[in-house]
């Protein structure tokens, strides 16, 4: 049940937050240098690193993407008629959280090294 709820929450969150950020980004680009600088300054420090807002949104959207993807893969397996045994199903549900957390950490560690 938790995985199903998280699948819906992450999908809705990515769609809402992602769409708002995309529209703001495109409007800032179209409005000129000053508007884009304002957009950029909300998420970054003066040296180009992410500030706390940038980190929260970046990590949150990344975790949402990986959680939604892992849950979708789990549903794809269930749609084939496999993994309906209770123990296996519960383990796959737990693995969606473990997998999404590991993928998020790996992604941000990779980004941090660049």
UniProtKB/TrEMBL annotation:
Pfam families: Sdh_cyt. It comes from Sphingomonas dokdonensis. Its main location: membrane. Keywords: Heme, Iron, Membrane, Metal-binding, Transmembrane, Transmembrane helix. GO terms for biological process: tricarboxylic acid cycle. Belongs to the cytochrome b560 family. This is Succinate dehydrogenase cytochrome b556 subunit. NCBIfam families: succ_dehyd_cytB.
């Amino acid at each position: 049940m938790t995985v199903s709820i998280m699948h819906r929450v992450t999908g809705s969150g990515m769609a809402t937050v992602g769409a708002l950020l995309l529209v703001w980004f495109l409007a800032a680009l179209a409005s000129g240098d000053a508007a884009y600088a304002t957009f950029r300054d909300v998420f970054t420090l003066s040296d180009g690193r992410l500030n706390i807002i940038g980190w929260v949104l970046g990590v949150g959207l990344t975790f949402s993407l990986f959680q939604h993807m892992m849950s979708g893969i789990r549903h794809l397996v269930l749609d084939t008629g496999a993994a309906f045994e209770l123990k296996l199903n519960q383990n796959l549900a737990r693995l969606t959280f473990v997998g999404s957390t590991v993928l998020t950490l790996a992604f941000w560690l990779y980004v941090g090294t660049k």
